[in-house]
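Quarterly update, task 2.4: nicotinamide-adenine-dinucleotide-bound model.
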Amino acid sequence: KSVPTITLNDGHTIPQLGFGVFKVEPDETTRIVADALSVGYRHIDTAAIYGNEEGVGKALAASNIDRSELFITTKLWNDRQGTQSAFDAFDESLEKLGLDYIDLYLIHWPAPGNDKFVESWKVLEKIQESGRARSIGVSNFLVPHLDRLLHETSIVPAVNQIELHPAHQQPEVTAFARENGINIEAWGPLGQGKYPLFDEEVVTNAAETHEKSPAQIVIRWHLQNGNIVFPKSNRLARMAENFDVFDFELSRTELTMISALERAGRVSAHPNEVN
Ligand code: NAD
């Protein structure tokens, strides 16, 4: 079975399961992305700040996969928010990736202390109009940040990419986003390995029932909840494992029990504190 797609609020489609390259070393990126493409991933999530856009671009170019089959996301870093700086940062990302358009361009963090995310969003609107980004969205935005965009700009973000995993489900921002037609992308979908999610009894029990691994159970929980996910691994075997999640389904009860693992367990910084 193949990866389902989700239709965004601008009519473009995104593969619901992709591959993330946060903390993938620049000199290893080409090998790692080539491995991911060989497994079947077609959606790659990178960012200017990851320092590995060139490596991603090389792997894409070498793959000979038709551009129309790929879905590439990259992000505007905080210190480039503004008008000219954001246009320039976008051009640099495009150049490093060796692409003539990006599928999805995101504002990486609201950085509310700098108060430039509304101005930056207007740049993303122009970039989308020019066709150089098919879709535009945001990342790490909380309700007040989304609310400002809805009131002060014209285009509703296609996605909000937020930290989301069973211990940190962000019900408030998730509900607000969905009510406004904004899809949720869950970053750190496996909790970044920072807490023992794979030892939770509800996860290990479901793994036994379905003869799957705990990671596959957690990815399935995301997919069945409608989240877009791109778990990261440097290892080919795990890339394949994380992609092999379309031959089983969690029951309603299993989903509910995994959702009960919520404990406000953020693994990264609070969005208001990243500038
Ligand atoms: P993740 O939750 O995907 O965890 C990755 C870690 O989980 C791996 O390093 C590995 O240790 C472990 N792992 C992966 N597959 C496994 C398996 N099958 N079995 C056991 N362990 C396994 O964390 P992430 O990489 O931070 O998040 C995914 C992607 O989200 C990133 O690569 C990046 O693209 C994106 N992201 C975005 C932001 C943002 O601010 N927008 C922040 C962090 C991550």
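Highlight for this quarter: The chain has a mean pLDDT of 97.
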